[in-house]
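Reopening closed ticket. The problem is back. First fold of the pair:
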Amino acid sequence: MKADEFSQKFDFAKPQFKHIETDREIIVPVSGGKDSTATFILALQHFDKDKIIPLHYNTGWDHPKTYQYLDYIQEKSHIEIQKTIFEEAPSMPDLIRRVGAFPNRMARWCTGRYKETATLRWYKKNGFYDNRKGQVWLGIRSDESAFRRKKYGDNDSSDIHGFKEIYASTPKSLDRNVNMRFPILDWDTQDCFDLIKNYGWKHNPLYDEGSNRVGCYPCLLSSKKKQTEEFNTEFGQKQLKFIKNLEKELGVKYEMYEEDQGSCEVCNI
């Protein structure tokens, strides 16, 4: 069987995407990673730019190259990336000092403040608690983990979910106005890289340096193995030194570096 015949026979080998028209604005959370970038590109391919809102959950704790990459996709798309902010403590170091401790498995307040409270405030400030209608395009894939396969394996990328269905604590006023879709749910890693390349964009350079995920650097709730990988980079060494200085400043120990398990709750949606 020829390659093209094989491809035609097994259509599941191709990334699937079904365009569904909507009058809602398309909100695309962008981390600077391959999945959210591919999702952003899909939105650009199917909707007018004035209808798309890229949104970055700002923690002030990403790798500098990720912030540079966000500037890059903003320039390439000609759409300003909106950023959430937790005004009481705009960056992770600010929040650690405010709390007087580091986050841990039992106290994931970095997730709560930066990816929940700050995000809900953004929606409220921008009218989505009132009558403004939106649809969040979240770039998650079911093959990323056993947890996601179990939770989303029976869903289809064209399914429209209620906001509260995914985030149980969502206020009713927001749930009425904003729903959610997972456009690349059944894609794999290479599908995302291929779309970015075929669209004429570059991917985040951290992938070429060995990273398999993009986000907080390091995620203070990730496993010891993952943190060790990132602490062993040039920028990671600076972050580790900063954390050790914070330990001395606050008189508390950063315990999660000794843990073998853990991850951000929002990343486990």
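Second fold of the pair, where the issue appears:
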Amino acid sequence: MAGIAAIMANGLEYREGRLQVLRGLSLMLFKGEVAALLGYPEAEALLGLLAGVRRPAAGGVRVLDLDPYEERAALSRRLGYLPPDPWLPEWARVRRLAEMVGARGGLRPGEAAERMRNLLARMGMKDRLERKVSELSTEDRALAATLLTLLPDPEVLLLSSPLKMLGPLARSELASLFSEYASRDKALVFSASSIEEADFASRVVLLADGRVAASGPLSELLKTIGAEHYVVLRSLDTQRIVDYIGKMPQVKMFSVSRGGAVRVWLNDFEHDLPVVLDLLVSLGIGLDRVEVGRLAAREALLNYIRRRAGSDRL
């Protein structure tokens, strides 16, 4: 993280019809970051507000210290935005689109075409430069739209689901391009449909119920939502386990299944597991079975959102 703020959102409120999409959302993103937004419809609404194509009902947005809605023209060459379901004209060749996009960014036609050729070559698509959009596959169209947004090399990139339509190889190469882009003191923010799409991001922002539910490196976010190792304890005396587990400082959280199995998450799994087991044994609690598992990220994310929604209603 470079430490220089590229994007600041403060107390954002936004509605789509009767749906309150954002509820006082505040967030700061920095140059040098690749930030993944998880959460629908909050992520798409936030990207639209940052790009200046939507207007907040309340709160403020600053991108490169400018208001993206009121000062959109001043930001036009400094900001790139890939909207949801981008449209490319079927009749146009990729070269012509590159020249058109490049002209808006101050590039000469030949310079824009050469830059697009290099981006396509990076993705193993060099021969697509002279093809019409109508001749491209679904994956190639999605990649072409994303690369056209990258082409002018803006200071901030806002991308709606750029990895969603891609296979694993294309996704991996595009992720490398994104990381290289941000390493040049630029900011890249994209929406992701799964944690797996966000695994290369320097920061993952989880949005739920119109607010930032969690934010940080993926490894820390996985701990926050509970997608980490846990231990399952089975005993004839489940209630005694629960009574003692709930008082142990090593325990982050626990749950009890209908069958009486106690699933326990620890603050530091490797360090705390032997301590907890020794304590239970010293207390005379007989453990019939001890199992170690790991909750899948998708399941953990859904559980975390449900827990937050439940606590917000209290």
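Update: turned out to be a display glitch only; the data is intact. The longest strand covers residues 5-16. The mean pLDDT is 89. Please close again.
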